[in-house]
Amino acid sequence: MEMNFKDRGFLSTWHLNMVTFDREDNLWCVGTSNNIGKWNSRTFGLVDKKEYNQSWDSKMIAFDKSNAMWSVGTKGNLAKWNTTTGAWEEPDIEKPWDLKMIAFDNSGEMWCVGEKGNVGKWNPIDNKWDDQGDLGGWKLDWIAFRPGDPRGDIYCVGTESNLGLYDPKFPNDTFHIESNFECKSLYFHEIFGYCVGTKDNMGVSI
């Protein structure tokens, strides 16, 4: 399997940690300075959304099915943006993990990668993360889901910046994906994959 990317360089000179899209198809990113940016298609540039950086530094952000913004902070903690109060609110979690990132699958369920490189799936009944272990034996930095995928495959970025595909039907293996990019994060929007490389630049799948 192969997945290659066209190098788009830096967005508005920003060095990137990750990119994502909200439910209204707006492009967002988090820079290496932990600042949050939103793409402005009129000015063809990023707008630094400083209101999200008050008393909170983000490693990454993600949007749930209701278009609410979630963030993993630089301390590995999780928070959700409250549009009414204009502040981040940390949920009450039984035995919270130190997180690298979170992602929402096509059913709207929340997943995470912990600091140990293992994967968790949110259990809303017990208010905790259910440990899924090391997917296919890989230690991970990132996971992503492709929209409309009926199989529920999990795309993986390993701790060596390698790409892989985890098929739940084959739980003992994560299949390696050949790529021209060394990735640190990955997101799928519509038919395209968006990768941020180890040089903080963005690539779009070709």
Describe the structure using short key phrases.
mainly beta, Neuraminidase, 4-stranded antiparallel beta sheet, 49% strand
Describe this structure in words.
The chain is mainly β. The chain has one domain: Neuraminidase. Helix content is 0%, strand content 49%. It has strands at 5-9, 16-21, 27-31, 36-40, 45-48, 58-63, 69-73, 78-82, 87-89, 99-104, 110-114, 119-123, 128-133, 140-144, 154-158, 163-166, 175-177, 183-189, 192-197, 202-205. Strands 1-20-19-18 form a four-stranded antiparallel β-sheet, with no helix packed on it. A four-stranded antiparallel β-sheet has the order 2-3-4-5, with no helix packed on it. Strand 2 (16-21) and strand 3 (27-31) form a beta hairpin. This is Photosynthesis system II assembly factor Ycf48/Hcf136-like domain-containing protein. It comes from Microbulbifer variabilis. InterPro entries: WD40/YVTN_repeat-like_dom_sf.
